Prior knowledge:
Blueprint: E1 2-3, H1 6-14, H2 19-35, H3 39-56, H4 60-86, E2 91-95, E3 98-103, E4 109-114, E5 118-126, H5 127-131, E6 134-141, E7 144-147, E8 150-153, E9 156-163, H6 167-174, H7 191-215, H8 224-241, E10 243-247, E11 250-255, E12 259-266, E13 272-276, H9 279-284, E14 286-292, E15 305-310, H10 311-329
Antiparallel strand pairs: 1-2, 2-3, 3-4, 5-6, 5-12, 6-9, 7-8, 10-11, 11-12, 13-14, 14-15
Helix pairs in contact: 1-4, 2-4, 7-8
Amino acid sequence: IYAATNKDLFIMGATENRILLIIAAIGAPLLFAQQVGREDILESLGRNAVENARGLGESLPIIAVYAGVAVVLVGWIASIISTAVKFNGFVLRSIEDQFERKYGLFTTVESVVPLPRIQTLCIEAPFIRRLLGYCTIHAGLAGSVQAQNQQTTATSILCLLVRRVDVAGYVRRVFPHLDLEAVEWKPVSRVAIRRGAFAMAIPLLLLLGFFAVFEKQPLIWLGAIPILALSVWYGLARYRTMGYAVIEGFFLTRSGILYNKVHIAPHGKLQWLTVDQNPIQRRYKIADVSVGTAAVVGMQLGRPSISDVELDKAVLLQDYLSARAEAAGMWMPDGV
């Protein structure tokens, strides 16, 4: 069905960044020193860092910028190398009623993905990858797997890198009755525009106000103009990327500007549904709708959910999906 090329591995790694892994690697010895009770080491390192920073004088901001760029660059290179090593020779085959995957340069991994056990599909497209016209397809599986004596999530990458125009064909491999290209997305409440704009504007304006008071420069307040413009754009862009769809047998959600995700959940796989409201949402009579399946997924992928739906529509959606899940689940031979 799918075989990753060297170009795919490069683009996959180049459109990610492992900065957090680098930061974690730097912070791990410090955390270990704290756990074994060697706070004196941390205090000594802290004093030395402060003294060295003071010694740099006016060149400190420039050096900090160079250091930040270096960390980003190292994280980018590390992402490319780790992706090429981990997913080298990635192949996905379809054999009877299951998928078989094989990948890995030093450690070869072969795994089986039974089609009836796929709970959800997640189509993720980080911003740069989406600009290039690519995305990644994940499958949320029931349960979890053991790898090297460690519990890991059972979210499986089915296709490392595919063109967005080809996604519908791969989705039909898993759910033959779903035509992703024919899905009509329903918008959320337009209050989402206001909420998104406020969510970006308030912290930035508070930060701007802090600098204006600290520096005692009134002209700094002129920075509020681009902040407000950016916040309005963000609110509109967030609203346009959000949507949901309920079609025969499936519930779909989409969201995300920089990290766009589309979730697909069959009605028969739904385990629970919730309608949530925070105080602001109660004020505007909107709510979040979330569904849960037996899939074990990581925080990055999340689960099918949609925010800022009109409350009456959210309640009707919850009732409808609950009824459909019960009707479909009664006839599922595997019970999951």
